[in-house]
Specification:
The complex is a heterodimer of chains A (834) and B (122). Chain A folds into 5 domains: 228 residues, Cullin Repeats (5 helical Cullin repeat like), CATH 1.20.1310.10; 84 residues; 205 residues, no CATH class; 192 residues, 2-Layer Sandwich (Ribosomal Protein S5, domain 2); 80 residues, Arc Repressor Mutant, subunit A. Chain A is built from 33 helices and 9 strands. In chain A, a hairpin with a 2-residue loop joins strand 8 and strand 9. In chain A, helix 4 crosses helix 9. Chain A starts with 15 loop residues before the first helix and ends with a strand. About 3% of the residues of chain A have low confidence. Chain B is 40% helix and 11% strand. Chain B has 6 helices and 3 strands. In chain B, helix 4 packs across helix 5. Classes of the chains: A mainly alpha (834), B alpha+beta (122). The interface between A and B is medium-sized, with 25 and 32 residues.
Chain lengths: 834, 122
């Protein structure tokens, strides 16, 4: 671009002497034109002529004179022709209305007066603006040279500014006297506009276009003639007042809502207001204000009383959550995300609600009476077992607890579903909220000290039921949910322990589909990693190998043609000690007790052992009698003297009992018809542990379904003094009878058992912590105590949350055992001893 | 502003008339390159109404060059590396004056940033 520096000046002609005489005619021409323009008579003027006139004046260096003359012409014109119009507009009415704010004028009256005033201003402005544009055009050459060189505001800025100086900033002396205070027309203007907008907010219909004209006028006017972009009168004067008025309006409205309405109304109202203000900025005010006024509404209407509204009884956040008011929550989310990017209020409220609901579930589960077994949903499905359980006193509490466990998990899952629903439908899948809610879930789940056990029991229940009544798809959904819960658990090692125990029972008693089991474990694997599931997978492997082994053994026996032993069909599970829970393996507290097997069984065992060792010499098989079961064919004789009914003929039943039961019943094969055995005798002959013996006797002599033994005296519980005899009159409707056994049902542990489990778990933890410490120290050589603790915690996080004091004890132990040593002079720092 | 009536006020062409009576019919769009003409046509003055701009101080010879420049600019406004316009030496001074009158000393041509004022500067 040709820079200004290169500007070529017109040559000076030798005409200087003529200049004086030429100026006046030119100015006269221009002056007449200005009047014509103001009177809208420009059509008959030639632009070229006027332009040339000002061109000539400027060329003759009279620019300054022209500038000043135009300015004073405009000022005069303004004073004489426009001011009277405006002064007329400023009636007492409008002054009273806007500045004194008399009560008693009706809204429509105010609106009419206000709009009349604004219309007057608008008309004056539009005329002035158009005239000034035209005058600026004919004086273009003046702006181009003189105004720029003398660094004055352009002629347009100078003349348009008259409107500001002489109208907006005009004070009306008569009114000022009356009010004893200075005020400007501008004040009236602002007050009228604000008043009209407030009327619109209240539901009146106002002339939006008119207001928009006024605001765009203010956008076109600047504080000074320099026309600095951020000094628009709109921004400097009008906008602050408008925002202030909006603030007052919404503050009042919010207080009113808080008094009179509920949170649900408030939400919708605030949402509507925000949209209205947005629209209003587009149609009535100015888009420049959109963001700012939105902030005002957010602050006054949303943020100011947010906590009060959220806490509202019956419609606040609690009610929204409890009654699944999705729409309310969605609006709430939108509003809060406007006012607070961190979502803190919503986040905290959600978190505490999750916590409360979580604790409520726990309380509810604790207080609910599950003894009405049939009524409890969880029990209803377990029809077969459940009916017996509820009738059998010793099992009753356990079954109740199991039902409670399942109830708890169900409730937690429902809660989780509920919040997931909120999250995806109302909260726009907000990550902050998700992690907050997840954290609360995990907090309350872990605060409940039985959660690991309950979750495992829940899976147990569903897998078992899956084998019976549920479809694959249903089971699938439930298992997915179980995995979700698993994610929340921090004591995963404890869960692992329970799951191992429950899985073992399911596998050994054929309570579940192996495919479902494998599916579940593979899900856990992908969720928690390989190390978590190795034991479970080992258990599956054992079961599979055992099946093959059993088949091979049967083939082997057939080949031998050993007719005698074929009468007993052996199904065997060869279990690897480490993979199975110690309780199952008989490594429990009391140590294992070898019971005395009947000779037929003993022969079978020996035969199998021999077969087993053929391929695997050196292995040791231990028979775990507490974990097995047997199907026994029993024959009950025809009862003499009975001619009709089932008792009149011989009856054969197949009885399914535990291994102990089998040993016990075989004992009665050798007992005469009317003889009986005392508790002591039975124990002596079988050496079944007394507790187990008591249980099996109870199941075979008390429960009516499988009462193949008679007890003397016939009471509801087994005592060591009781005597037992064969019940020759036993009748059953079904051929296959299952003796109810306590050991095959996974149930909640009693308090004693729990303590034992936890103690065992802590022992295991101690070893794991030891290993972790040594691993870390081996790598780092020296480390301070705090750093070591942190590292141990991070390393073990995926398995459980190590207790800091436990870590400290383990470190001390390792110091004592000289794996580590302290460093002299550096307190609380350890060194690895190689 | 040109009113939206039929006839000259929104015709595609305007007529420029010199002091000695030469008339040049110019595409409106090209003529608007000059801020002076642009202002002349956008208001409610007689030129806007008739589409006829009379320049009683500019001779046909000079106005022809001015019109030539308007077209030259209009054609080449987005073309890089345009050859300079031919300016007869004897017209230079008057053309300079005219360029100032039409305010053509600050408009640009393409990327070459040539203005009439520049072109005239030897």
């Amino acid at each position: 671009m040709a820079s200004r520096a290169n500007k070529i000046r017109p040559i000076r002609r030798p005409i200087m002497n003529r200049e004086a005489s030429e100026f006046e005619p030119c100015w006269n021409l221009l002056r007449d034109a200005l009047s014509d323009i103001h009177s809208k008579n420009a059509g008959r003027l030639s632009f070229e002529q006027l332009y040339r006139a000002s061109y000539k004046i400027v060329l003759r260096k009279k620019g300054e004179v022209l500038y000043e003359r135009v300015k004073s012409f405009e000022e005069d014109w303004f004073r004489e022709h426009i001011m009277p119009l405006i002064t007329k507009l400023i009636t007492n009415n409008i002054v009273n209305m806007t500045l004194i704010q008399h009560a008693g004028t009706s809204a429509s009256e105010r609106r009419q007066t206000g709009e009349r005033f604004l219309r007057g201003i608008r008309d004056a402005w539009e005329d002035h603006n158009m005239s000034m544009n035209m005058i600026a055009d004919i004086l273009m050459y003046l702006d181009r040279s003189y105004t720029i060189e003398s660094k004055k505001p352009s002629i347009f800025a100078a003349t348009i500014g008259l409107f500001r100086n002489h109208i907006l900033r005009d004070t009306i002396p008569s009114v000022a006297e009356q009010l004893e205070e200075d005020f400007m027309v501008f004040d009236i203007l602002n007050a009228v506009v604000v008043d009209l907008i407030n009327m619109e907010r209240d539901g009146d219909i106002v002339d939006r276009n008119l207001i928009r004209k006024i605001t765009s006028m203010l956008e076109d006017l600047y504080e000074t003639d320099e026309e600095i972009e951020n000094q628009k009168l709109y921004l400097l004067v009008f906008e602050p007042r408008y925002l202030q008025a909006s603030l007052i309006y919404y503050k009042k409205e919010c207080e009113k809502l808080l008094r009179e309405a509920d949170a649900s109304t408030w939400l919708r109202h605030a949402q509507r207001r925000l949209k209205e203000e947005q629209d209003r900025c587009g149609t009535t005010v100015s888009i420049l204000t959109a963001y700012k006024v939105a902030k005002v509404v957010e602050k006054e209407l949303v943020e100011a009383k947010l906590d009060e509204f959220l806490a509202m009884e019956g419609s606040g956040l609690k009610a929204m959550i409890d009654n699944d008011r999705l729409e309310d929550l969605a609006i709430l989310y939108q509003l809060i995300s406007r006012v607070d990017g961190t979502m803190a209020p919503l986040k905290n409220a959600l978190q505490s609600r999750v916590m409360d609901l979580g604790l409520e579930i726990e309380k509810m589960v604790r207080n609910t009476d599950f003894s009405v077994a049939g009524a409890g949903q969880a029990d209803a499905d377990e029809a077969g077992d459940g009916a017996d359980k509820s009738k059998m006193q010793p099992l009753n509490t356990a079954a109740q607890q199991t039902a409670a466990a399942i109830k708890w998990v169900d409730e937690v899952l429902q809660l989780k579903d509920k919040f997931d629903n909120f999250w995806s439908n109302c909260f726009n899948r907000d990550l902050v909220l998700q992690s907050a809610v997840t954290k609360s879930f995990s907090d309350f789940i872990n605060a409940f000290n039985r959660s690991s056990e309950y979750v495992s029991l829940f899976i147990d229940d569903n897998i078992k039921r899956g084998a019976k009544v549920k479809t694959d798809a249903e089971v699938d959904v439930v298992l997915d949910k179980a995995i979700i819960l698993l994610r929340y658990l921090s004591d995963r090692d404890l869960f692992e322990r329970y799951y191992q125990k429950h899985l073992a029972r399911r596998l050994l008693h054929n309570k579940s589909e192996i495919d479902t089991e494998k599916d579940m474990v593979s899900r856990m694997k992908s969720e928690m990693g390989n190390h978590f599931t190795t034991k479970f997978e080992g258990m599956f492997k054992d079961i599979e190998l055992s099946r093959d082994l059993g088949d091979n053994y049967r083939d082997h026996i057939r080949q031998l043609g050993d007719v005698d032993t074929t009468k007993i069909d052996l199904g065997i599970h060869v279990l690897t000690t480490n993979n199975w829970p110690p309780e199952v393996m008989g490594r429990g507290d009391g140590g294992r007790v070898d019971c005395i097997y009947p000779p037929a069984i003993k022969r079978l065992q020996d035969s199998f052992y021999k077969f087993y060792l053929k391929d695997r010499s050196g292995r040791v098989l231990t028979w775990v009698s507490s974990a097995g079961s047997a199907d026994i064919k029993c024959t009950f004789p025809k009862i003499a003297g009975k001619e009709s009914g089932p008792l009149s003929k011989e009856r054969r039943y197949e009885l399914n009992v535990s291994t102990y039961g089998m040993i016990l019943l075989m004992l009665f094969n050798d007992v005469g018809e009317n003889e009986s055995l005392s508790f002591g005798e039975i124990q002596g002959k079988t050496s079944i542990p007394p507790l187990d013996l008591m249980r099996i006797l109870a199941s075979l002599s008390i429960a009516p379904k499988a009462r193949v033994l008679l007890k003397e005296p016939a009471s509801k519980s087994v005592k060591p003094t009781d005597k037992f005899s064969f019940n020759a009159q036993f009748v059953s409707k079904t051929i296959k009878i299952k003796a109810p056994t306590i050991s095959s049902i996974n149930k909640v542990e009693g308090d004693e058992e729990r303590k034992a489990t936890e103690k065992k778990n802590d022992e295991t933890r101690a070893h794991i912590i030891d290993a972790a410490i040594v691993r870390i120290m081996k790598q780092r050589k020296t480390l301070s105590h705090t750093k070591l603790t942190t590292e141990v915690i991070t390393q073990l996080q995926s398995r459980f949350k190590p207790d800091v004091s436990l870590i400290k004890r383990r470190v001390e132990d390792l110091l004592y055992r000289e794996y580590l040593e302290r460093i002299d002079g550096e307190p609380a720092t350890y060194q690895y001893v190689a | 502003m040109a009113t939206k009536s039929d006839g000259p006020s929104n015709s595609k062409y305007i007529t420029m008339v010199s002091s000695d009576g030469f008339e040049f019919v110019v595409i409106r769009e090209a003529s608007l390159i000059s801020p002076t003409i642009k202002a002349m046509l956008r208001n409610n003055f007689s030129e806007a109404k008739t589409g006829r701009c009379v320049f009683p101080d500019i001779s046909g010879l000079v106005l022809e060059k001015v019109v030539e420049y308007l077209y030259y600019y209009h054609k080449n406004v987005n073309v890089p590396y345009v050859p300079d316009m031919e300016i007869p030496v004897e017209l230079c001074l008057v053309l300079l004056e005219a360029a100032d009158y039409f305010q053509l000393d600050s408009v640009t041509v393409g990327t070459a940033f040539r203005s009439m004022g520049d072109t005239l500067k030897f």
